[in-house]
Amino acid sequence: SGEKVLVIDEQEAISIALRPDSQQIAFGYWQGQIKLLDTDTGEVQLSIPAKTKAGKTNAVRDLDYGYDGSWLVAVYRRDHSVQLWATETGEQLYSFERTGPFLHSVAAHPSKPLVAVGGEYGTLFLWDAETRKEIKVLEGHTAEIKTLHFTLDGNYLVSSAEDRTIRVWDMNTFELLDILDGYTIPQQFAS
After folding, report:
1. Phi, psi angles (nearest 5°) of residue 183
2. Strands 114-119, 13-18: parallel, antiparallel or unpaired by DSSP?
3. Are 57 and 37 in contact (CB under 8 A)?
4. What does DSSP assign to residue 70?
């Protein structure tokens, strides 16, 4: 096709995100490190060191770029934290720790500083990345939330969980709009 294909050897990564302008890709690791790579060259632009809790590694379960690409949000498993990082400097902008279940998934809104975070037991909350305040807890899932995605226009949030449901949430009213149930997560993705 004549298009350039970049081969990146990041076999140990457990999470990945593409910056909105497609110029940078982020990899999160089980050991807690985050690497930001240039998509044209494959070169590491920035490496954010591993976070530890009580001397143990703190896996980056999921990550996503903020709407303007200037920040990256990462969910860490062990300390139940959401970390906000500057993508140019690697500076930690904010750390939000939450008691309760492990966190597993994160999605950043495509046009404003809104972050959705999902975890065990159906925990799903919305957080404002500028004010650093929790906005709303969305209730409905009864098992671990595996994935979260905002639609391109940002009007809806879609969540899927091990309770075998996909839920569609209205981001203007924070109301549940629809439930698709009965799907099965393939076993290799269920752990």
Report:
1. -75, 160
2. unpaired
3. no
4. S
Report the alpha-carbon distance of residue 146 to residue 29 in Å, rounded: 17
Quick one: 156 exposed, middle or buried, by C-beta within 10 A (0-12, 13-18, 19+)?
middle
Non-local CB neighbours of 120 within 8 Å, separated by 6+ positions:
101, 102, 104, 143, 144
Tens of pLDDT, residue by residue over 31-79, are 889 999 999 888 999 999 876 666 677 888 899 999 999 999 999 877 7
Express each pLDDT in 125-155 by its tens digit: 899 999 988 899 999 898 889 899 999 999 9
Closest CA to 114 of 148, 66, 71: 66
3-state DSSP assignment of residue 189: helix
Residue 81 CA to residue 57 CA, distance in Å, equals: 13
Provide the strand spans (E) within the chain: 13-18, 24-29, 34-38, 44-48, 52-53, 56-57, 60-65, 71-76, 81-86, 92-97, 103-108, 114-119, 124-128, 133-137, 145-150, 156-161, 165-170, 176-181
Q: What is the spatial distance between Cα 38 and Cα 156, in angstroms, rounded to a whole number?
A: 30
pTM comes to 0.84
Block residue for tokens 């970049």: 6
